[in-house]
Amino acid sequence: MWRLCVDGRPHRPVHQGGSCLEVLDRYPAGVPVRDSKVPHGPALVFGPAARSPFVSALKAGFASA
After folding, report:
1. Count of CB atoms situated within 10 Å of the CB of 63
2. Rounded to whole angstroms, what are the CA distances from 1 to 27, 32, 51?
3. Which of 3, 12, 4, 9 is nearest to 60 (CA)?
4. Contact 46, 30 (CB under 8 A)
5. Burial 7-24 (b: 16+ CB within 10 A, else e)
6. Which helix (H) or strand (E) holds 3?
7. Over the stretch 4-51, which tens digit does the pLDDT of each residue have?
């Protein structure tokens, strides 16, 4: 089951231009991540070594667009 990935910062609702990521738990090949506004769209799958730098970059604001 997909769940919202919350990083502790306040999020605006999607209808107000907010953005959230969803992650899929217990996926054997890694950690799938997708845009919550596009639930039937593509997902990125991160292995354990790549997930931590990706999350750190998001928290630092490098992926905001």
Report:
1. 12
2. 10, 11, 19
3. 9
4. yes
5. eeeeeeeeeeeeeebbbe
6. strand 2-5
7. 875 545 555 444 455 678 888 888 888 898 888 888 999 999 887 887
Q: For tokens 């950690």, what's the residue?
A: 31
Amino acid at 38: V
Q: What's this model's pTM, rounded to 2 decimal places?
A: 0.61
Alpha-carbon span 39 to 28, nearest angstrom = 20
Residue for token pair 């306040």: 10
Distance CA 37, CA 18 (A): 9
